[in-house]
Amino acid sequence: MDLEKPARALDTLQEVFRNKKWAYNWSESVLEPIMFRYLELCVELRKSHIAKEGLFQYRNMFQSVNVGSLEQVI
């Protein structure tokens, strides 16, 4: 992922959370660091609506499996 282009990096990470085929097959230990980076990029680019969408997706994935991971991200 090219960190010189944060908007493109954010788009790529957004696809990870949108694509249910990918997202629901990975454990929270893999997706949690990705989510942290996703939120960092959202803050850097001032994209609060995209951050909110990503948090909703993350919540849907781990709400019933691991609430602790959701708490850490929030």
Descriptive report:
The protein is mostly helical. The chain is 77% helix and 0% strand. It has a domain at 29-73. The protein contains five helices and no strands. Helix 1 packs across helix 3 (28-45), helix 3 (28-45) runs antiparallel to helix 4 and helix 4 packs antiparallel against helix 5. The protein is globular and about 35 Å long. The relative contact order is 0.16.
Write down how many β-strands occur, each being a DSSP E stretch of 2 or more residues: 0
Estimate the global geometry from the Cα principal axes. globular
Rg over CA atoms, rounded to whole Å, is 12 Å
Looking at how many chains there are and whether they match, the oligomeric state comes to single chain
Order of helices and strands: HHHHH
Q: How would a textbook summarize the main sheet?
A: none
The helix content is over 70%
Look at the helices and sheets and give the structural class.
mainly alpha
Number of helices: 5
| End-to-end gap | 24 Å
Q: Which residues sit in consecutive blocks of at least 5 with pLDDT less than 50?
A: none
Average pLDDT confidence is 80
**Approximate strand percentage:** under 5%
GO molecular function: mRNA binding; translation initiation factor activity
Organism: Eumeta variegata (Bagworm moth)
GO cellular component, one term: multi-eIF complex
Pfam family, one: eIF3a_PCI_TPR-like
